[in-house]
């Protein structure tokens, strides 16, 4: 039994556990986890960094018809003083994420896996590592962005950042709105935002699904 089938047919049936760890940093292993619905991060141990693989109990999923636009974000959309892009500054986004978060889990061998997967576009069937960028058109400054991946027609967010400078207030939310609109235009099925406990996800329009509900939706395209 290969890794993906084992994750889907054995591990996912255990309703009491959500966290697992591994020292396998291979691209193949990471992709198998992603396809099975795991969202992987990292954890520091005395022996070193390990891959922390989580099959969450709950997921925040956004159906594009439910996207909420606040008046502040609509005003930024109308101003059009930004450039939104996909896969133009992957490593710069990673660097900005590291600067923005004091306890960044996206580090070490994990970053190397993401870079390898990004460079390996087309090598894995139905998997693509991606970045999204928001640049201020007036200053040409990268002010928000995130990394994530596509599999089974679903985009999954990993981590992101937005500028904390006052002049860029709400541009982080703008990046999320533009991303949602992009995903819808590209015919993605839905957006997986991961853990549902962060308020901005529900404000954006995401709804909470159980693990069972999420896995059913993820695998419905088979």
Explain the overall architecture.
The structure is a single chain. By secondary structure, the protein is an alpha+beta fold. It has 2 domains: 3-54, no CATH class; 59-208, 3-Layer(aba) Sandwich (Aminopeptidase). It is 35% helix and 29% strand. It has a 7-stranded mixed β-sheet with strand order 5-6-7-8-9-4-10. The protein has a 3-stranded antiparallel β-sheet with strand order 1-3-2.
Task: Indicate the topology.
Blueprint: H1 3-9, E1 19-22, H2 27-35, E2 39-45, E3 48-54, E4 58-62, H3 71-79, E5 82-86, H4 90-100, H5 108-119, E6 128-136, E7 141-151, E8 154-162, H6 171-185, E9 190-192, H7 199-204, E10 207-210, H8 211-218
Parallel strand pairs: 8-9
Antiparallel strand pairs: 1-3, 2-3, 4-9, 4-10, 5-6, 6-7, 7-8
- State Rg: 17 Å
Would you identify the CATH architecture of the largest domain? 3-Layer(aba) Sandwich
Number of strands: 10
Helix content estimate: 25-40%
Q: H/E order of the elements?
A: HEHEEEHEHHEEEHEHEH
Question: What is the CATH homology-level superfamily of the largest domain?
Answer: Leucyl/phenylalanyl-tRNA-protein transferase, C-terminal domain
Question: What structural class do helix, strand and pairing data support?
Answer: alpha+beta
Q: Structurally, how many domains make up the residues?
A: 2
> What is the name of the CATH topology of the largest domain?
Aminopeptidase
Question: Span from first to last CA?
Answer: 19 Å
Tell me the strand order in the biggest sheet: 5-6-7-8-9-4-10
The overall average pLDDT, rounded, is: 95
